[in-house]
Amino acid sequence: MQDAAKRRSAQNLLGDGDLALSVQVMQEFFHQVTRPSRANALTSGQAQGFLHSMASFPVVPMTVDLFQDAVSICERFRLSYWDSAILAAARRAGCDAVYSEDFSSEQDYDGLRVINPFQEPPP
User: Fold this and answer.
1) Which residues contact 98 (CB under 8 A, 6 or more apart)?
2) Residue ranges per domain, the chain?
3) Does domain 3-115 have CATH number 3.40.50.1010?
4) pTM for this one?
């Protein structure tokens, strides 16, 4: 999917309103969009402004309990800790799905399904 189509898809999802964010996702977003080697990198202020615009969504904080859940998920499914922290936060938020283009689409992690919002529908 091309960048313009990805933007439209992301904007549609954000307009849905039934979403939650994890601190891990916010950290990863900030790091990726502000890194100096990125073409068209955002300034720190621009990135923070975007994240501030997400304030209407519930944010799952990083806690010791969430960390321990993430480690368990990491060991059980052999995922990176960082991906496991996203799944643990989604569970804490009561989500039944996680939107990601990085996880295997339609993978199920004990009732938590992964959806790639940018995947082209099959022909």
Assistant:
1) 86, 87, 90, 112, 113, 114, 115
2) 3-115
3) yes
4) 0.84
